Amino acid sequence: MPSTLGLAKVLEAWTWREVERLRCEGAQLALALGEVERELSRLASAREAMRRAHRALRTDLGDCEDPTAAGGADAAGGGLGGGIRVTVPTREPGMDLTALPGIYRNLAQVLNESRTTLQAHELTRLLGLEPTASSVEGVRARAKRLVARGWAVQADRGRFASSPACARADGVRRP
Prior knowledge:
The chain contains 5 helices and 5 strands, in the order H-E-E-H-E-H-H-E-E-H. The chain has 175 residues and is mostly helical.
């Protein structure tokens, strides 16, 4: 039978091994905690940068709703997953292009200045955007939204022009 002193010695050795194991585990946890805290700091910085960019976009786009709000019938922009929702007003007599937000105003100006009807890829290039498939489709969707709101007309399938009322209101003369 083992002696009490022998058992105490075994128990003390086991306890020292447990202390070392827990110290090692604690050091690993401290490293993991440091990594997670650095990631949290990076995420907070990224969130703040996005908040500043959102404020800048709201300034650049003009009339803008809360991006987290559900879009109404006349909200343009993001579908599922959000995005900035921009209100494109229906054209009323006496309204000029300043009533349109950002990219819509630029698009309507390009249409007003053109003497011919334009396709979406031509509009994309004239807006100074790279004519990738997604940017062309985005411009096409915005042009169709301008048509639906009375700011432009769809002349032929896929060809857009300024609404005659817009052109007259903005002083653009057509041959």
